[in-house]
Amino acid sequence: MLLFSVLVAAVAPGLALLTYFYLKDRYDYEPLHMILRVFLMGILIVLPVMIIQRGMMLWLGDNPYLESILISGGVEEFVKWFVIYHIIYNHTEFDEPYDGILYSVAVSLGFATVENVLYAIAGNASVSAMFLRALLPVSGHAMFAVIMGYYMGKAKFIDDEKKKRWYLTLSLVLPFFWHALYDVIMNTMVNHWLWFIAPLMAGLWYGAVGKITRANNRSPFRFVKREEEVKL
């Protein structure tokens, strides 16, 4: 019974956050089957990511900074970015800037949910530990995804090729930077990590809310919906 409760606590944060971001789509809800497919992609990339990370650890050795910056933040964000760019970026359902955020979050939360379940099984974690992980790593994955998806959305709907490449670069580099910083704090600070991670997460959430609003405000469906409301 305890194991079941822990597993539920491991899965619930990812689904709750995915629901939150899905409902934040103000003008054109994405098909649920697409969201679930992308969430499943996030689940499926866990194994190849783990294999790559294991190989890099054997190659680079046991260094907490390299592990935080390259092995964890670098590999995970690159693989998620690769999936979004090559599978979702040119998809017909990616038809407004907010979709970049939503699909990036779906991939990241699929990944984070499996990561959470594996932690719960391997570490004999408690429900309280799962609550803390919901506030930190699971939420962190979502925040990095918001940044990735926001800039992918900007790149998708701009005609200037130079700016398009710049935004695509930011969609990879910025999530990598924040993920690496998060992992450096968690992996190298033993006693005072909370004093650094709490303001970091607060800042990421504050930035995410602004990005959600700005992405929705650039939706091509915004004026269509207003016209429909006026007619009613």
TrEMBL record:
<feature type="transmembrane region" description="Helical">
    <location>
        <begin position="35"/>
        <end position="56"/>
    </location>
</feature>
<keyword id="KW-0472">Membrane</keyword>
<dbReference type="Pfam" id="PF13367">
    <property type="entry name" value="PrsW-protease"/>
</dbReference>
<feature type="transmembrane region" description="Helical">
    <location>
        <begin position="6"/>
        <end position="23"/>
    </location>
</feature>
<keyword id="KW-0645">Protease</keyword>
<feature type="transmembrane region" description="Helical">
    <location>
        <begin position="100"/>
        <end position="122"/>
    </location>
</feature>
<feature type="transmembrane region" description="Helical">
    <location>
        <begin position="134"/>
        <end position="153"/>
    </location>
</feature>
<dbReference type="GO" id="GO:0005886">
    <property type="term" value="C:plasma membrane"/>
</dbReference>
<keyword id="KW-0812">Transmembrane</keyword>
<comment type="function">
    <text>Involved in the degradation of specific anti-sigma factors.</text>
</comment>
<feature type="transmembrane region" description="Helical">
    <location>
        <begin position="68"/>
        <end position="88"/>
    </location>
</feature>
<protein>
    <recommendedName>
        <fullName>Protease PrsW</fullName>
        <ecNumber>3.4.-.-</ecNumber>
    </recommendedName>
</protein>
<keyword id="KW-1003">Cell membrane</keyword>
<dbReference type="GO" id="GO:0006508">
    <property type="term" value="P:proteolysis"/>
</dbReference>
<keyword id="KW-1133">Transmembrane helix</keyword>
<dbReference type="InterPro" id="IPR026898">
    <property type="entry name" value="PrsW"/>
</dbReference>
<dbReference type="GO" id="GO:0008237">
    <property type="term" value="F:metallopeptidase activity"/>
</dbReference>
<comment type="similarity">
    <text>Belongs to the protease PrsW family.</text>
</comment>
<keyword id="KW-0378">Hydrolase</keyword>
<feature type="transmembrane region" description="Helical">
    <location>
        <begin position="165"/>
        <end position="181"/>
    </location>
</feature>
<keyword id="KW-0482">Metalloprotease</keyword>
<dbReference type="InterPro" id="IPR023596">
    <property type="entry name" value="Peptidase_PrsW_arch/bac"/>
</dbReference>
<feature type="transmembrane region" description="Helical">
    <location>
        <begin position="193"/>
        <end position="212"/>
    </location>
</feature>
